Amino acid sequence: MSARDEIFASIRRSLAVGPVDAPRRDAVAARLAQAPVGIVPRRGQGEAAERLATFRSEAERVQTTVAEVAAAAAVPAKIAGYLRENNLPATLRFGDDNRLADMPWGATALEIARGPSEGDDLNAVSAAFAAVAETGTLALVSGPDNPTTLNFLPDNHFVVLFAEDLVADMESVFAKLRLACGSGALPRTVNFITGPSRSADIEQTLLLGAHGPRRLHVMVVKGRS
Amino acid sequence: MSVASTTPRFKDNVHDALNDQRLQGALPHARNFIGRRADAAARLPEFDALRDSARAIKDHTLAHLDLYLEAYERKVVEAGGHVHYARDSDEAVAIILGVCKARDARVVTKGKSMVSEEIGLNAALEREGIVAVETDLGEYVIQLRGEAPSHIIAPAIHVTRDDIEADFRRLHRDLPPDRDLSRPEQLLGEARAILRDRFLSADVGLTGANFLVAETGTSIIVTNEGNGDLTQTLPKVHIVLASLEKITPTLNDVAQILRVLGRSATGQDMSVYTTLSTGPRRAGDPDGPEEYHVVLLDNGRSATLGGPFAEMLRCIRCGACMNHCPVYHAVGGHAYGWVYPGPMGAVLTPLLIGVAEGGQLPNASTFCGRCEAVCPMRIPLPKLMRRWREREFERRLSPPLARAGLRLWAFFAKRPALYRLAVEPTMRALGLIGRRRGRFAWLPLAGGWTRGRDFAAPQGATFQSRWRAKSGAVK
After folding, report:
1. Which of A149, A202, A211 lies closest to B195 in CB terms?
2. Residue B474 has pLDDT above 60, yes or no
3. In a domain, A39, yes or no
4. Domain containing A170 — which CATH number?
5. Most exposed of A134, A205, B14, B31 (fewest Cβ within 10 Å)?
6. Which chain B residue has the Cα nearest residue A148?
7. Is the dihedral of CA B379, B381, B387, B388 positive or negative?
8. B-contacting residues of A 178-197, CB under 8 Å?
9. Above pLDDT 70, what percent of chain A?
10. Does B268 contact A62 at a Cβ distance shorter than 8 Å?
């Protein structure tokens, strides 16, 4: 008997069930198809303005910095200004996302690189798939538009969040993913990011920038994308 | 064979831990978790309702585990991944070695995985000439020290900053010996730089999983550092090693459990990185692994379902039970002698390595009940430990002196008049002698107790005599 068969037999023996048991199969199929939503905290709910205020305060609690811009066209100058103010090199990498590519980068002195990171980039910008007001969390998905390596290898990670993608809770992000990818399917990687990388492994002292970014700066674009 | 234990020598381990000044200096850090968890729970009005929801999800899943496993497996394969089944540690190790050898792997980076500790993976890889690199900062530190984790989420909590500096100076020999490492940031920076090279050169990345999602065939890891993400993004092969009970039906079910996981573990509403991985990289993806393997480990878990210890399978490895355990606070995690310490370890260890070898751990509890009070999955840990104690007694595995003591106590307990006659004068006498200081630093026949701590002086009257007096007054 293969390991697989033996493990399934052992589970069914312990549960005192057989392999064909229609009510059990129906219960499982129903839960998988319906994906019932459980208890959702009130914290993230509310109108758009309220959600944005909650997102902002929750994100700032975990050392994310948040700026608001009126339109996408304002993002390059904002990033250039942030880098200058923090005394950081004027370089930036991003993927194929048209919402980023169409921004007026030429109006800044930023040295732009494109595609995934090889590990020696200081700064990168990604566009978020969604964000969660309840916990100040960003959701990013893998693919050529926003390569996953950009979320982790650079020291300073900028994330552009279009205000219409800010939802109340994780369940709403999953609903959005089901719409985008089809039910029961996901991209290779979905990253939920809540603050810059950190570790408390040295005597429980909180340190930022353990392996991932030391700084996480979100720019919320309030106008239509 | 699972990794070897020193659990049968538990009493000696405890003795050593209590006398280890360095360890006793490091252990108070574990108490920081208590306030953080309490604050996070207090900030979320729905917290206790979410605990009930999380428990119900896990109970439902375990009752249908075979069917959710089938659904999960189908989805992983649909996404282009491979699912491997391992009955025990040896099989899991063999599967992982097979995947590594097929790719001629020389370096394997690892995200934090307690199951990899359970199966003794690092030693097995090294025997085959494959370098295993722990990348979680705490795990990296203890790998340098040749130690095992002493906590399931803070593996190096028994190590001080000074220890880490000494280890880095001893083992990072390519760096200038006069470099400044006095601040924790500098230690972190050094480890980050060294591990960054390892991430980029690894052939295989191995992670554990907090959840395996049947709805989508997804593995999920929950971390703070980002090391797990670099581990599962950069190498050509991503191996997920997880035990069967990590199966969760849907993404919405995961969202319920996530809301209690971070808060119970570190007091965070959400850990920094919650990452969903589904299959290998897709056509057109510029990064991510080319191969995706899941190794599902049983190691006795399937036999635990439906039995007296089945509730233990709800455990989500948050560490809250040990963070709140007075025994863990006193002796640390290594004294428990195997992979899983604290109250969850005391219940799980006899299940995984047998009551003959692990049976002492369920005795390492004062039954204060804090572990059950904080467990996000509402596992009745004291009840399960008591169940092990009963088995240990039934199988005559407990020491003769303890058995004789229990028999003596039972003799008196069954004869209430005799019991009162023996106990009341003794308590009166002890209460009288101890009245001034309120405690005893030494008592005849109680050296085992008083060597490590004081014995509180009785107040004089026994519970029974006060009860009699009180009910008399009421009448």
Report:
1. A211
2. no
3. no
4. 3.40.50.10420
5. B31
6. B287
7. positive
8. 184-197
9. 99
10. yes
The domain segmentation of chain B, as residue ranges, is 7-302, 416-474
Are A70 and A134 members of one domain?
yes
Q: Which helix (H) or strand (E) holds A189?
A: strand A189-193
Query: Do A24 and A51 lie in a common domain?
Result: no
Taking 60 as the threshold, does the pLDDT of residue B211 lie above it?
yes
**A9 and A117 together in one domain:** no
- Residues A73 and A131 placed together within one structural domain of the fold: yes
Q: Token pair 């199969």 is at which residue? A: A25
Contact indicator for B243, B297 with CB cutoff of 8 Å: yes
Q: B7-302, superfamily in CATH?
A: NagB/RpiA/CoA transferase-like (3.40.50.10420)
CA distance to A95, A180, B444, B472, per residue, from A101 (Å): 8, 21, 81, 87
A21 & A50 share domain = no
Asked if residue A183 and residue A108 are part of one domain, the reply reads yes
As a whole number, mean pLDDT of residues B387-407 equals 87
In this complex, do B255 and A153 lie within 8 Å of one another by their Cβ atoms?
Answer: no
Find out whether B363 and B387 touch, Cβ atoms under 8 Å: no
Domain assignment of residue A40, yes or no: no
Nearest CA in chain A to B56: A38
State the smallest CA–CA distance between residue B276 and chain A in angstroms: 5
Best of A34, A189, A207 to disrupt the B interface by mutation (most B CBs within 10 Å)?
Answer: A189
Per-residue pLDDT tens over the stretch B176-203: 999 999 999 999 999 999 999 999 999 9
ipTM exceeding 0.95, yes/no: yes
B85-127 pLDDT, tens digit each: 999 999 999 999 999 999 999 999 999 999 999 999 999 999 9
Instruction: Say whether residue A174 is in contact with chain B using an 8 A CB cutoff.
Output: yes
The number of beta carbons lying within 10 Å of the beta carbon of residue B237 is 22
Q: Please write down the HEC assignment for all residues of B247-260.
A: EECCHHHHHHHHHH
> Residue B224: its chain A contacts at CB < 8 A?
197-200, 210
pLDDT tens, position by position, A51-72: 999 999 999 999 999 999 999 9
> What was the pLDDT predicted at B303?
97
A14 Cβ partners below 8 Å, 6+ apart?
B302, B303, B304, B305, B306, B307
Residue A145 and residue A202 in one domain: yes
Residue A107 within any structural domain of the chain: yes
- The whole-model pTM stands at 0.94
Distance from CA of A99 to the nearest CA of B (A): 18
Question: Which of chain A's residues have a Cβ under 8 Å away from the Cβ of B153?
Answer: none
Inter-chain touch A62–B216, beta carbons under 8 Å: no
pLDDT at B439: 87
* Cα three-residue angle B252-B255-B256, rounded to 5 degrees: 95
Q: Give the pLDDT confidence of A1-20 residue by residue, as tens digits.
A: 899 999 999 999 999 998 87
Structural domain count of chain A = 2
Domain shared by A23 and A134, yes or no:
no
Using a pLDDT cut of 70, give the percent of chain B over it.
99
Strands (E), A70-181: 91-94, 111-114, 123-127, 130-132, 137-141, 156-162, 166-167
Question: Looking at CA atoms only, how far is residue B283 from chain A in angstroms?
Answer: 9
End-to-end CA distance of chain A: 57
**pLDDT given for residue A124 in this prediction:** 98
Predicted pLDDT at B473: 61
Shortest distance, CA B358 to any CA of chain A (angstroms): 22
**Which domain does A93 fall in, by range?**
45-221
Q: How far is A78 from chain B (nearest CA, A)?
A: 25
